[in-house]
Amino acid sequence: MSGCEARDAKKLVRSPSGLRMVPEHRSARSPFGLDEPPWVPDKECPRCMQCDTKFDFITRKHHCRRCGKCFCDKCCSKKVPLPRMCFVDPVRQCAECALISQKETEFYDKQLKVLMNGATFFVTLGTSEKSELMVCRLSNNQRYLVLDGDSHYEIEIIQISTVQILTEGFTPGGGNTRAIGMILQYKVPGSEELVQMKFTASEDFSCNKKLSASWLAAMHKVSKGGKTSRRL
Predict the structure, then answer these.
(1) Which sign does the torsion angle of CA 141, 143, 148, 152 carry?
(2) CA 20 to 30 Å from 176, out of 36, 92, 133, 151?
(3) Are 122 and 200 in contact (CB under 8 A)?
(4) Alpha-carbon radius of gyration of the chain
């Protein structure tokens, strides 16, 4: 077991919003996670914050689990998975938040799984002329990019500053391109030093090309904002 996965144990907790399966150690939290929002107090919400319907004994108040705002049942009726808050079951969300959560489902169901399954690349460190064949994957707790070969690296996702995807086959119309590698820069913990790594897909097998391209596409998705814990 690698050092970055030694504290992956989880526990089941109950919050006002529902059951959550969260890491036992806060330091093992996913960088893609979101904290539960504070709920708008009932006394501060006499009307639905979407349609302005007045609350009474018949029209009840419901809080969106993603934004914490107060709505009537009509405006907050959808129950949608919210993995970024570690909910076990789908939870009640307003229409706007439900749409965001539904869009994020693909990231969790597809891209994150692709990254955790890993792919093989030739990795070049800094300005070195030598490259090393390494298996690259996202750790189970989603906090680290793990590189295994003759060498071993664990790069914390939140320390990655830039990701540049390398492509080939560019045409004037922008078609027929495919990802063949990436250049990644990250900060060394405790300093402002930037380290650069170049990843180049192995050309040994056509199936590896497809796997590598899928992995690079998922990594590009992360670099566009997933690691900020705000947007995916």
Answers:
(1) negative
(2) 133
(3) yes
(4) 21
CA 42 to chain centre: 32
CATH assignment at residue 17 = 3.30.40.10
Average pLDDT of adjacent 10-residue blocks, the chain of 232 residues: 56 89 79 91 95 93 96 94 93 95 86 92 90 93 92 91 83 67 89 90 67 88 56 46
Q: Are residues 54 and 131 in the same domain?
A: no
Q: How far apart are the first and last CA of the chain?
A: 29
- CA-nearest of 33, 29, 28, 32 to 7 is 28
Residue 66 in tokens: 């993603």
CA distance 82 to 150: 39
Please indicate, yes or no, whether the overall pTM of this predicted structure exceeds 0.85.
no
Verify that 108 and 204 share a domain, yes or no.
no
Per-residue tokens: 196 = 């650069």
Tell me the C-alpha distance between 232 and 224, whole Å: 7
* Domain of residue 143, residue span: 118-170+178-225
Q: Which residues pair with 200 in a beta bridge?
A: 122, 181
